[in-house]
Amino acid sequence: MMQFYMPTKIFDGKEIIQEKGQLLREYGKRALIVTGRHSSKINGSLRDVEEILKQLDIDYRIFDDVEENPSIENVVKGAKTYEAAQFVIGVGGGSPLDAAKAIGVLLKNPNIPVEKVLFETPNAKALPVIAIPTTAGTGSEVTPYSILTVHKEQTKRNFNCKIFPEIAFIDVRYFLTMHIKVRVHTCIDALTHLIESYLNTNATAYSDGIVEAGLRLWAKGYPRINAENIDETHMNYFIEASTFAGIAISQTGTSLPHGMGYYLTYHHGLSHGHANGILTSSYLRLYQNQEKVKQLLTYLNMETIEEFERKIDSLLPGLNLTQEQMQRYAEQMMSNQAKLKNYPFKVTTEELFMMYKQKSSQAESNR
């Protein structure tokens, strides 16, 4: 059986909020804007949202203290900013969009304990969420996921609800001011979404078709991925690839690199895209259906895993992990059933250890 579900309405274009912002009337008269500390102010997205809300006479408050990799405590703080809100607008990269979804759940369910509603109530509803992305990485504007840092577990977890944004407003103007490092890491994150969806237990003809289109777009953008100033055409390639990637993982989920990367983010401070990206060439080698890996590489205009590794790893610093760290992370990953079940073959602790070791050894050999 194959199924496909994508309820988010996507509006993509320059000044799209000014053109389609009247749709926000449908969601109430009180909005909570959830964003980070700086980027939405710099790229103009926050200003545009505030202006349209004022035009529509919608009262709003702003929570602009979203952490990178938001924690449970962070989203609880955000929910307290405007408990009377009728809908939530997430503005920014994956962290603000993920936080907006979690805050929407908390505001809709104020009488359920926080961890219970986030992680033990799969049918929990949320206030309507509007997503305005400003990085081309997570695809959170079209996924039902919210990845939260859980300090007591020293890792990150997806909440147990399925909350798709009602609307995604995508405007290339908001992406052009990204720092080069942020652009590189987030675009690589989108690439790992495409790859992990394609090499996945849950892959279907529908998701594979979306991945193929996304990989071809990503390959078109690649020559300018770390350019000092990226043009709108190449940025749009990455934006579309990221949105396609989000649609794809909404059908399949992610797999081993994401689960393994969470430990690198939590314990070593690597960005989400860096952590996933540095492990991906090892994942391509591990994957037992090498014919599908070869097909994937053709969509990227690459011939071998070695070529992929050179191009991606040249954009990312390597790892420097101890044997004890690699062993511990591999053992912990073996208990992550949500990610293991998305890998179509049996995997051992030793194989996961070697995925870390291949990249850590490389980092040491390149010194």
Topology:
Elements: E1 9-12, H1 16-20, E2 30-35, H2 39-43, H3 45-55, E3 59-63, H4 72-79, E4 87-92, H5 94-108, H6 114-119, E5 129-133, E6 147-150, E7 155-158, E8 167-170, H7 180-198, H8 205-221, H9 232-252, H10 256-268, H11 272-286, H12 290-299, H13 305-313, H14 323-333, H15 337-340, H16 349-365
Parallel strand pairs: 1-8, 2-3, 2-4, 4-5, 5-8
Antiparallel strand pairs: 6-7
Number of helices: 16
Can you tell me the residue ranges where pLDDT is under 50 for at least 5 consecutive residues? 362-367
Helix/strand-derived class? alpha/beta
What share of the residues lie within helices?
Answer: 40-55%
What is the helix/strand order? EHEHHEHEHHEEEEHHHHHHHHHH
Mean pLDDT: 95
Q: What kind of oligomer do you see?
A: single chain
CATH topology description of the largest domain? Dehydroquinate synthase-like, alpha domain
Give an account of the 3D structure:
The chain is of the alpha/beta class and about 375 residues long. It folds into two domains: about 10-175, Rossmann fold, CATH 3.40.50.1970; about 180-365, Dehydroquinate synthase-like, alpha domain, CATH 1.20.1090.10. The chain is built from 16 helices and eight strands. A six-stranded parallel sheet has the order 1-8-5-4-2-3, with helices on both faces. The chain is globular and about 55 Å long. The N and C termini lie far apart (about 50 Å).
